[in-house]
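Tip: read the tokens left to right.
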């Protein structure tokens, strides 16, 4: 039997792992039976928490998912705000669908085959075809069922563009600093993170006035795209406020957003799918304990510092490794033309970045830093180096190959300023790419990364240069990782760039392009050529 999303409520199943917050929560389902009546009453009471409003005889179908031929199916995790977005949209449209709760610590084959790039929820499967990424799913639902229920996007093209801009603002600009508040474990970290996120709430307060045009929602009279995109985080915002002792959407400072938040949470389609705040709080406290343990491992007072420069692929390696491990650290940007005393003292031999300072002790050289991070925090995230001794040696071999054999000819291409220089340098670099293409086949063993199912040492070493490859290609008119010639590496590069930890650490390509053009201009000048 198919059930309406409006009748489903928050489904809390088994052991789950939330997609973007990496937290674990166990909901045991135990039914103490003394007689038939008691069992039924206890069962009804338990199911009422999970599926309010659904008749008991229909609840098993609702929990497992119905759907004729699985025509409309949603893969998600109960606590994910990204999944909540989709459930709200489907509820607003009054659509019936099959919901499949995913355990992201043991991802299902359906999830992996439906979203092979990001391997994340939500995934909406419609007629057997998957649609991924929450904002993409929202627009898909609105376009396919445009005549059903309220529309998420306005009819006017300019208003649609404005809505998309603010929805993306929530994802790309508001969320990262709020995530830092979410992940903070000390009062000092919380104060810093809260200070950084408040300006974005101020911006959203102004955006509400622009988008709502004096009405109740960003979308006007009814909840729209921006309402769903931002509103899906509201329970999480309240829970983090409770733990951190903050008030992000302060009624005195942000009256419009505060009133909007209450209106949004009162919408039927929202109430039916928003997770219980108490359950979210319990999950977050469990996550908070884990983060605190990591912070303690990183040294008392959060003494984990990284000295780097924003454009350095070697510093990017260290950033990626720290992000993969979920570690909090202080990043200190260095001016390599006016090196700080801390840098000179921490790396007196090479006087270069990156330098990782852990508990006051410096660790230098990017590949050394990667292995240090992997060994110091072995229980945090997948390891960078495999367990098998021979596989570890192979990974180290290829990481060394990249730095010592691949990099020098590519560096010549990067520094080339004439067509003749570029042609010669490119010709010298291509054979090394051919070798790396074969190495990918050897190391990946048919899987997504050099490290297999997950990013490993070689992925981080090579991948830290991928944005640089693209920038140099654009200026030089080359295509180093040509998909026709090097299909394995080309596909790998896109997968690597889509990894969350990588996206967090990678510099903006446009900013890097401007930096590179300035570098070439200096090289081409008389002073640079001497």
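Filled-in amino acids:
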């Amino acid at each position: 039997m198919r059930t309406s999303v409006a009748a489903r409520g928050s489904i809390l199943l088994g052991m789950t792992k939330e997609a973007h917050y990496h937290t674990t929560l166990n909901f045991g389902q135990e039914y103490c039976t003394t007689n038939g009546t008691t069992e039924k009453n206890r069962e009804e009471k338990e199911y009422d928490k999970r599926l309010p409003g659904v008749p008991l005889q229909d609840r098993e179908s609702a929990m497992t998912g119905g759907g004729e031929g699985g025509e409309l199916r949603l893969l998600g995790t109960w606590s994910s705000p990204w999944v909540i977005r989709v459930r709200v949209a489907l509820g607003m449209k009054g659509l019936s669908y099959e919901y499949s709760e995913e355990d992201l610590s043991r991802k299902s084959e359906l999830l992996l085959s439906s979203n092979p790039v990001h391997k994340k929820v939500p995934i909406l499967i419609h007629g057997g075809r998957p649609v991924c990424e929450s904002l993409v799913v929202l627009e898909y639902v609105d376009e396919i069922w445009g005549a059903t229920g309220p529309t998420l996007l306005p009819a006017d093209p300019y208003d649609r563009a404005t809505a998309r801009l603010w929805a993306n603002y929530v994802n790309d600009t508001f969320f990262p600093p709020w995530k830092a508040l979410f992940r903070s474990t000390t009062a000092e970290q919380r104060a810093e993170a809260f200070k950084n996120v408040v300006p974005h709430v101020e911006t959203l307060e102004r955006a509400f006035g622009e988008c709502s045009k004096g009405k109740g929602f960003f979308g006007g009279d009814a909840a729209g795209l921006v309402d769903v995109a931002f509103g899906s985080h509201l329970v999480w915002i309240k829970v983090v406020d409770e733990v951190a002792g903050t008030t992000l959407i302060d009624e005195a400072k942000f009256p419009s957003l505060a009133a909007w938040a209450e209106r949004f949470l009162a919408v039927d389609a929202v109430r039916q799918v928003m997770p219980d705040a108490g359950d979210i709080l319990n999950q977050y406290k469990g996550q908070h304990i884990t983060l605190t343990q990591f912070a303690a491992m990183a040294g008392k007072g959060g003494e984990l510092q990284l000295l780097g420069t924003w454009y350095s692929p070697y510093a990017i390696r260290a950033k990626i490794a720290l992000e993969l491990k979920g570690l909090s650290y202080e990043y200190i940007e260095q001016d390599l033309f006016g090196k700080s005393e801390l840098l000179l003292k921490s790396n007196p031999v090479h006087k270069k970045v990156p330098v990782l300072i852990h508990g006051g002790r410096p660790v230098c050289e990017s590949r050394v830093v990667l292995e240090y991070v992997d060994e110091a925090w072995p229980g945090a995230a997948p390891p960078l180096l495999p367990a098998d001794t021979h596989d570890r040696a192979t990974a180290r071999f290829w990481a060394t190959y990249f730095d010592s054999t691949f990099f020098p000819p590519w560096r010549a291409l990067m520094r080339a300023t004439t067509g003749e220089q570029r042609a010669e340098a490119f010709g010298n670099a291509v054979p090394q790419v051919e070798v790396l293409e074969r190495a990918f086949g050897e190391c990946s063993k048919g899987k997504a990364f050099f490290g297999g199912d997950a990013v490993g040492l070689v992925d981080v070493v090579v991948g830290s240069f991928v944005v640089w490859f693209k920038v140099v290609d654009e200026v030089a008119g080359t295509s180093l990782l040509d998909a026709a010639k090097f299909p394995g590496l080309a596909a790998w590069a896109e997968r690597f760039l889509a990894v969350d930890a990588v996206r967090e650490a990678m510099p903006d390509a446009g900013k890097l392009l401007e930096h590179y053009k300035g570098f070439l201009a200096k090289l081409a000048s008389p002073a640079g050529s001497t």
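Strands lie at 15-17, 24-26, 72-76, 98-101, 123-126, 129-132, 304-308, 330-333, 355-358, 361-364. The longest strand covers residues 72-76.
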